[in-house]
Amino acid sequence: MVPFLNIETLYWNHCMIYKNKCFKKKEKFYQDFLVCDTNPPCDLEKIKLDDLRQVFFELSNMCVYVHLHPRCPVSLQKTKKVLSSKVVKKVLDELGEHNYKGFVAFHRYNEPLIDPRLFELISYAKSHCPKAMIRILTNGFYLHQAIVDELSNLDIESLEVSAYFPEEYRRLTKLNVKFPYKVFNSILDMRLSLYDRKKLNLPKPCYAQINDITINCEGKLSLCCLDWKNKHTFGDLEKESLEKIISSRKFLSVYRNLAKGNRTLNMCSRCDWQR
Hints:
Number of helices: 9
Strand order of the largest sheet: 1-6-5-4-3-2-7-8-9
Helix content: 25-40%
Order of helices and strands: HEHEHEHEHEHEHEEEHH
Structural class: alpha/beta
Strand content: 5-15%
Number of strands: 9
Shape: globular
Largest sheet: 9 strands, mixed
């Protein structure tokens, strides 16, 4: 039975974070690789595929905890959508051809372990984009030792779990994981209200377009993970290559502005994140 989500459960000791020895050994590398640079991470005039840090595939808009999380954007989505495997494989092929060395992940607002294609897609990524690092972020509902062992056989880079309940945290920290593994308790932020907040117009650069490439469950390239309404998209990967989209005038124009701290987009003008 899924635990009932109440205020007491939500705000349990939010400082608890478990990291196994493998994760601790790699932690500095992760921080250095994913840290938001003080300078643009790539040329403002041209972006190459090997400039990207992470590529996220939102495999669907489904999550096992959606009915418990009114703050989650998925809770407002009435029509179920699934990202085409054809799009995922097409992008992985393209990344592999350019020797992409960043992270590949299969989440945005979805729960990746709910998707029966996950292991196949991980295997495809390992064979067609062999230099990429596979990162799995899950809420842990389906995570048990047998699943951990399967993921270990697939040679993924890291497994991170957002545990929403104290009992789940205790269960998950007892799993025997022999590769980088992290469990942390999670409280959903207030991103649902982002579009309606008062404008901040903070002059802070943001490189999320490069550091966090987000392909939504409709196969569109999104601005970033916070744009849950997908108001700012740059192309359809059913029809265009990833390289063509990130080289487009529209994508480059937004990137240049954000890299200079010019938060001109409606959503960005209300955001205080920097990635």
